[in-house]
Amino acid sequence: QLQLVESGGGSVQPGGSLTLSCVGSGVPLDYYEIGWFRQAPGKEREGVSCISAHDGSTTYADSVKGRFTISRDNAKSTAYLQMHNLRPEDTAVYYCAVLGGGGRCPGHVHEFSYWGQGTQVTVAS
Predict the structure, then answer these.
(1) Distance between CA atoms of 87 and 108, rounded to whole angstroms?
(2) Mean pLDDT within 70-97
(3) 102-114, pLDDT tens digit by residue?
(4) How do residues 36-67 score in pLDDT, each as one tens digit?
(5) Residue 1 — pLDDT band, cuts 50, 70, 90?
(6) Gap between the Cα atoms of 71 and 56, Å rounded
(7) Which residues does 70 contact at the CB level (< 8 Å), separation at least 6?
(8) Beta carbons of 37 and 48 less than 8 angstroms apart
(9) At 40, phi and psi to the nearest 5?
(10) Beta strand 3-7 with 18-25: parallel, antiparallel or unpaired?
(11) Ramachandran class of 111: left when φ > 0, alpha when ψ lies in -120 to 50, beta otherwise
């Protein structure tokens, strides 16, 4: 009965910043790995970042390293994705998801059992 809700998407000019939030409800997030994914029109869904439940370690896609930062606050059942120096190619629908079945970051897309509804990020002049 885990439910995830993303927020924080919007439109921004190249070089700008946005912070996405993902709030969980139903069950605590403490023991779950949490991932962020994105899907642009006509493209496959790709993993952006993942944060571990056991040691706080993080992984990032090469395309966002140095620009994006994933974090979590288990007391608030919330995960975040800080995005800086945004580029037009970052335009996509962004999803947060929970990795189930005992999986560990980065995980395969099909290992993530619970998904939010997505939030749109548009980077354009």
Answers:
(1) 25
(2) 97
(3) 889 998 999 999 9
(4) 999 999 999 999 999 999 888 999 999 999 99
(5) confident
(6) 8
(7) 34, 36, 49, 50, 51, 58, 60, 79, 80, 81, 82
(8) yes
(9) -90, 155
(10) antiparallel
(11) alpha
- State mean pLDDT over 19-45: 95
Residue by residue, what is the 3-state secondary structure of the chain? CCEEEEECCEEECCCCCEEEEEEEECCCCCCCEEEEEEECCCCCCEEEEEECCCCCCEEECCCCCCCEEEEEEHHHCEEEEEECCCCHHHCEEEEEEEECCCCCCCCCHHHEEEECCCEEEEECC
Beta strand pairing call for 119-123 and 58-60: unpaired
Which of 88, 89, 110 is CA-nearest to residue 100? 110
Place of tokens 């897309």: 109
**Which amino acid appears at position 87 of this protein?**
R
Structure-block tokens of residue 10: 């919007």
Residue whose token pair is 């354009």:
124
Going by C-beta distance under 8 Å and a sequence separation of 6 or more, which residues neighbour residue 98?
2, 4, 24, 29, 32, 33, 34, 35, 112, 113, 114
pLDDT of residue 101: 75
